[in-house]
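Weekly structure sync, notes
Attendees: PL (lead), two postdocs, one rotation student
Agenda item 3: pending single-chain targets
PL asked that the sequence for the first pending target be pasted directly into the notes so everyone works from the same version. It is reproduced below exactly as submitted, 251 residues in total.
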Amino acid sequence: MVLGFLMFLIDSYQIKKIAKKNRGAFASVDIPAGTVIGDYLGKLIPDAEEDEEKQGLYGMPLNGEVMILANPKVVGIHFINHSCTPNTAMYPAGDHTIYFATRKILRGEEITVNYLLGQPDKTCSPCRHACYCGEEFCQGTMHCAEKDINNYLAFESKIQKKQKGKYKAIGRQKINEILKPLTKYPEIVSDYPIYPLFASSKKSALSYQDTHMPSRDHLRSLIRTTGRACHFPRLGITVTAIKNNTIHARV
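Predicted structure, written out during the meeting:
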């Protein structure tokens, strides 16, 4: 893995320009499910100094008082765009936020994540958080329901308690300095039901000859390991996603 200020922990990506999104990260090879993509590093600033209008959408909360402000001139996982059907998600490693592949990311696919922005407030007028992913489940906005935010924060707190100081930064963290990388990172992140799974919309579905609908857990495993939708010709349906423990399929 490539460690350091670049913040990507893999080298199997390419940065490309995209219409309406400026830049984005794309998989140059298949990336297996659970792969740690990178660590969100940047300058530590007090929350009060965050100014999205001037700084762009490059801030990541570190705790209740400090933000991580990524540098748009430096290649890093802050180049990963928002999508309503992401193939990557946030996961806590100590007090750091890492991105990992929720399912197999297929070669040529854009690497995407849900930014988990809370509901708009008075500063979000006019709102600058339109989503252009254009996917089946696109909501047209990067803002999420408060329930989704709270569920993730509860999950994050639970994971951090289990880790019990397992992941520590290299040296002391100071305001106005660059957040230092961790001394080690998870080798792989397991599947958790809190993370929705969306099959690739760019690749064809894989066919299975089941005569009964598989369990939700088995469907998660199929989508996670292959990255593709599950087509069941004998049942006449194609499972495309599992979100909030609900199976989404088309006939």
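Discussion points:
- Residues 196 and 244 are 7 Å apart (CA to CA).
- The first helix runs from residue 52 to 55.
Action: rotation student to compare against the earlier draft before next sync.
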